[in-house]
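Much of what follows relies on a compact textual record of a protein's fold. The record below shows the convention in full:
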Amino acid sequence: MYMSEDRINYLDHAATTPVREDVLEKMLPYFTQKFGNPSSLYALAGEARYGVDEAREQVAGVLGARTGEIVFTGGGSESDNTAIKGIAAARATSSAGLRRGGHIITTAIEHHAVIHSVEQLEKMGYEATVVGVDSKGRVDPGEFASAVRPDTFLVSVMLVNNEVGTIQDVPAISQQVREAADRVGTNVLVHTDAVQAAGKLSLNVDDLGIDLMSLSGHKIYGPKGVGVLYVRRGTELEPLIAGGGQENQMRSGTENVAAIVGMGEALVLSEAERTSSRPRLQALSERLIEGIAERVPTSTFNGSHTDRVAEIANFSFAGVEGEPVLLGLDFKAIAASSGSACSSASLEPSHVLLAMGISPEMAVGSLRISMGRETTETDIDDVLQVLPEILQQLESFPAGAGN
């Protein structure tokens, strides 16, 4: 039985966020009064087209990009797929097809949208190098760059990991990859999945040194079903969705105007609050981590204490699985997760934690708590009060009982 909405302590913001009221307010007219198709020529369509254009300007402003480099998509996963497969397809069709195949570099802790896209390309004859991480979930830029080969054409590395919150040094990775590419005489494009970084870190594309970036609306208090793919000018990319040629020929289909308007507004508001929200969220994060370490001495904090965003904290508990912990928290009206929202219902241990060297037994017992703009000290204190009780009950329950 689910608790009523007003009683839920929501601590799964890395999975999704509620649409904030000012974003919804800006979206609403595009469902009713301004419902026109942006591709049409009459005034009603012009209102819709203006909404899309304004959102594009908003996103470009946050990214330090040109409006023509912003492509609206159906979400972060589509953006990742378009970046990886679109670059590969453009390479395959260029130069009269003389550059089929090639080499891609990514990391062992990417989102499944990246991992599975790369795996699909491998089935088509491409080769991939998957770079590992250290025990804190960090990629060594030098090791990453050392994987560059003469046939490498794309690297993909996420800016903030969605399970443990680790920040990758994307500027250093990008710089060293390009230096390595120059040495072997090739051109390598850099893609970053920045879905979890929006509203937490700067997204300036020049500072990051990237050519492609993926974003998602529902992680930043915008609507679901909308995302952004930044494509640096001059980058050849074959669209995944063919049709009427919307989004500068890069993503066909009638624009989801209301969602696009919400995406632009949500990103601007998240960026505006990014710096001012840091001290409060950092204090809440430290309260949580120190509190769990004190109350559950057998717990393990997964990730880096320094190179991470404050919003995401991941823990493992010996001798228990994540699912019953989540159910216990849910019974107490606390919503959290065991890792990625795409795989949290699975009993398989997290691929991110395994890549960090955590044992399968500990990885399967992980808990991710992710905070947001409305998280309070009371929310954290509630977790610290009920979590030890839940773990104690699970530890005392005989293994395999009830099977």
In short: The longest strand covers residues 312-317. The chain has two domains: 5-18+275-396, 21-269. The domain at 5-18+275-396 is CATH 3.90.1150.10 (Aspartate Aminotransferase, domain 1). DSSP finds twelve helices and twelve strands in the chain.
